[in-house]
Amino acid sequence: MTTPIDSQGVHQHALRFFEEEVTFLFHITDWCNLSCQHCFINAQNVPVHQFTAEEVLSIVRDMKKLNTTRIAFSGGEPTLHPDLTRILEVAVEEGFSPDFVSNGTLITEELAEKVRDLVRCVLISVDGPQEYHDTFRGMKGAFQSAMRGIEALRKKDVPFALQFTVTKKSFPYIEWIAETASDLGAESLKLEPLFVGGRAREIASSCLSEKEIDELAEFTTRLYGQYLASTSVYMGIHSKKVLTEHPCNAYACFGSECHRHAENDPRELIILPDGNVVPVDSCLNPRLYMGNIREKSLMDVVQEYFGSPQHRGFLALCRKVFDEQVVSYPYEAIPWSQMLAAASWEDGYD
Fold first, then answer.
1. Which of 74, 93, 96, 326 supports an S-S bond with 101, CB 3.0-4.6 Å?
2. Exposure string (b/e) for 152-165, b if CB count within 10 Å is 16 or more?
3. Inter-residue contact 30 to 41 (CB < 8 Å)
């Protein structure tokens, strides 16, 4: 459904649906059994914020009305949520094929059996061989527990994928994780460079440089070809060529200026455990948050967002970063969402 827009590309109607493919990353709890060095939401060993199954049902129904394309549930550690199975059922009943993101340590054969027909894929974080992984995740035995969780998924024929956080210290393990993902039968392997946010601020020196991110992109391309027959290897980052030719792949262009007349829909929306809804990156300045679904419905948050000062500020930020940083960026691999988040904290971005 299309609604009129003004000269700024801002919608004037209250009723608004997503025109482009939009994914929700839904953090249903901040409860976690690990103390990962890079946790960007500062998850706790006791639940401080946690959505009930009833709240999730209402939110997912609104997602459906908004024409959301995909949902991934995360935490904290979502398998700690007492109603995870019911939450997945709710998503399936509304027509979604959800994913959930897990550290894998609490996945048993019993849980795998319960979720088998309720998930498109389970994304398991593995960040290196045993000693490195245990240190990075803050718990001795985390690696072996994750491997047992993966084995449980395999036994019950639950599709799974691996995620690998790339730091200066873990860079040498990239060949290892690609081979491991292939040997385990993972559908895919996502190589995700570490970026500063949450507890990761304490290990900021471990973040890759721009040049190292570009080297990682080249490395990923080679691994993609090497393991294509078994596991799809990809990187959670944008290509400069794709982004400059079609910026709507990162953020929607301004109406008639877009080659496909794309709307102003952020490509990913994040629901934090405290209820805040954030476009694109969880580390974005709170001044640009869309609203809070603990205060009003998701439908109301979205309807009130389009055309709001937060929306105009976000679009201005996107255009500013695109014009001032992307066009002249010296490397092919561009960490778009992280660039947006960093720029949102600078004075005068809007």
1. 74
2. bbeebebbbbbbbb
3. yes
What is the per-residue pLDDT for 12? 44
Q: Which two tokens stand for residue 129?
A: 């061989």
Task: Tell me the pLDDT tens digit for each residue of 176-233.
Answer: 999 999 999 999 999 999 988 888 889 999 999 999 999 999 999 999 999 999 999 9
| b/e burial code for range 91-120 (CB count within 10 A of at least 16 → b) | bbebebebbbbbbbbbbeeebbebbeebbb
Are the CB atoms for 148 and 111 separated by under 8 Å? no
Q: What share of the chain is helix, strand, coil (3-state, %, to 5)?
A: 40, 15, 40
**Rounded distance, CA 87 to CA 66, Å?**
19
Cα-flanking dihedrals φ and ψ of residue 168, to 5°?
Answer: -60, -35
The architecture CATH gives domain 23-344: Alpha-Beta Barrel (3.20)
Looking at residue 40, its pLDDT comes to: 84
CA distance 119 to 245: 34
**pLDDT for 254:** 58
Could you report the per-residue pLDDT of 138-157, keeping only the tens digit for each? 999 999 999 999 999 999 99
Residue 246: the pLDDT is 79
What is the arithmetic mean of pLDDT over 128-133? 98
Q: Which residues pair with 164 in a beta bridge?
A: 191
Q: 327: burial class by Cβ within 10 Å (0-12, 13-18, 19+)?
A: exposed
Q: How far is CA 16 from CA 71, 247, 315, in A?
A: 19, 22, 17
- CB-CB contact of 233 with 189 (8 Å): yes
Place of tokens 């081979």: 179
Buried b (16+ CB within 10 A) or exposed e, 23-55: bbbbbbbbbbbbebbbbbbebbeebebbbebee
Q: What is the DSSP letter of 254?
A: -
Domain ranges of the chain: 23-344
**Whole-number Å distance between alpha carbons of 65 and 62:** 5
Q: By three-state DSSP, how is residue 81 classified? A: coil
Phi and psi of 192, rounded to 5°? -115, 110
